[in-house]
Amino acid sequence: MHVLSVNVGVPGPNPWKGLRATGIDKRPVAGPVAVSAPGPKGTGAVGLAGDRAYDVKHHGGADQAVYAYAREDLDAWEPELGRPLAGGVFGENLTTVGLDVNGALIGERWRIGADLVLEVSCPRIPCITFQGRLGREGWIARFTRAAVPGAYLRVVEPGEISAGDPVEIVHRPSHDVSIALAFRALTLEPGLLPELLVADVLPAEDLALIRRRLGGPASAEG
Question: How is 117-153 classified by DSSP, letter by letter?
Fold first, then answer.
């Protein structure tokens, strides 16, 4: 298991959301990239140095510090999309090889390289910018049905990351809530939502959403 490429955003226009820019155009970079915890959502800060989010309401912050997608899943999409898919094309910071990103458990921790430790936080939910970037009508629905969303990660221990760095799974929680299961529950299969509550390291906003949908209090405090 290793990182095939480390991808950093190149700002571009975002006509799909009417925002001044988007950072979804991620491109592989050479050399080590510093990764650190960006703080709470709302500033546009993300984990990788030189990158940022522009839709600050929905992207960035500690729970979405780093986005990983498997090279194997990109390969599987190529015939349908009818073109080669370079690392970063789905907006991912890390394109991985040999790692079951969608089977990763919420709260699972990865050590990458010598120092960096990341924690699996939540699935990526597709938005209109993603669809517009690929130029594929109906892409949000197609991507959602496939349920291979990739994983957002938190920064537990900062460090540097480079293409070729090994990935080691250093902790797996006792529950069985995977990225794929959480995605299915949050999108097309709400009947699965009760199963997510054991994954208490899901982002607070996701847990509040789940409780609202289940008809309970939005927070543990009621």
Answer: EEEEEEEPPP-HHHHHHHT-TTHHHHHHHHT---EEE
- Tens of pLDDT along the chain (222 residues) come to 999 999 998 888 888 888 888 888 899 999 899 999 999 998 999 999 999 999 888 889 999 999 999 999 999 999 999 999 999 999 999 999 999 999 999 999 999 999 999 999 999 999 999 999 899 999 999 999 999 999 999 999 999 999 999 999 999 999 999 999 999 999 999 999 999 999 999 999 999 999 999 986 655 433
Q: Closest Cα to residue 130, out of 10, 17, 5?
A: 17
Rounded CA gap, 178 and 166, in Å? 22
Q: How many CB atoms lie within 10 A of CB 81?
A: 15
* 79 SS3 class: helix
How far is 181 from 189, CA to CA, in rounded Å?
Answer: 9
How many C-beta atoms lie closer than 10 Å to residue 197's C-beta? 15
Separation between Cα atoms, residue 196 and residue 210, nearest integer Å: 8
Q: Which residues pair with 111 in a beta bridge?
A: 117, 168
CA 73/CA 151 separation, integer angstroms? 12
